[in-house]
Design a protein that fits this description.
Elements lengths: L2 H14 L3 H15 L11 H18 L3 H18 L3 H18 L5 H31 L16
Helix pairs in contact: 1-6, 2-3, 2-5, 3-4, 4-6, 5-6
Length: 157
C-alpha cells in the first residue's frame, strides 16, 4: 500500500463517525447473504457484533501506519478467528461484504477509495491467513498430550 492509500483508508473510515456500527451491521447482512454458512461462526447478538466489529476495524485502521503494530494485532485476531472456526475460504466473502458495505456508507466513495480499501483488506487477509497457517503447522507438529485419567469425584454423602 502507498502512503496515500493508507491515508485514504484512515480518513474514509474516520468519516463514518457514528455510522460505523450501522456499516458493520450492513457488513454482516451482506456476509451472511454471500455465505450463509458463515452465520454459525457468530453467536452473539447482532448489535453487539456490529459494535465489536466497528471497534476492531477502527483499531486495525489506526494501526495500519505501523506495520509491526498492525501485523501483531492481526496475528492475535487470526488466533481468535481460527478458534471460532474461521477458515481461509471465509476471507474472500468477508472482503466482498466489507467493500460493499463501505461503498454504501461512505459519502465520498471513489475508484481510488475502493482500490485503497481492497488493498488494505487484502493485506489484512494475507497476514491473518498466514498466521492461521502457522498455527495449523504448530498444531500439527505438536504431539498430542496423553489423555489423563479422569479425577474421581469424592462422595460427600
Amino acid at each position: 500500500m502507498t502512503p496515500e492509500q493508507i491515508e485514504l483508508v484512515r480518513c474514509s473510515y474516520a468519516s463514518l463517525g457514528d455510522d460505523a456500527p450501522a456499516m458493520a451491521s450492513d457488513f454482516y447482512r451482506r456476509l451472511f447473504a454471500i455465505d450463509p454458512s458463515a452465520q454459525v461462526l457468530f453467536g452473539q447478538d447482532p448489535a453487539i457484533m456490529a459494535e465489536k466489529f466497528a471497534a476492531e476495524l477502527n483499531a486495525i485502521v489506526e494501526a495500519i501506519i505501523s506495520f509491526d503494530v498492525f501485523s501483531a494485532r492481526l496475528r492475535h485476531l487470526a488466533t481468535r478467528h481460527r478458534a471460532a472456526g474461521v477458515r481461509p475460504r471465509h476471507y474472500r466473502s468477508a472482503g466482498d461484504a466489507l467493500v460493499a458495505a463501505l461503498a454504501d456508507h461512505l459519502a465520498d466513495w471513489t475508484p481510488a477509495t475502493e482500490s485503497a480499501w481492497r488493498r488494505a483488506y487484502n493485506l489484512v487477509a494475507e497476514i491473518m491467513i498466514a498466521a492461521t497457517a502457522d498455527l495449523d503447522l504448530q498444531s500439527a507438529a505438536s504431539p498430542t498430550p496423553p489423555m489423563s485419567e479422569p479425577a474421581e469425584v469424592e462422595d460427600s454423602g
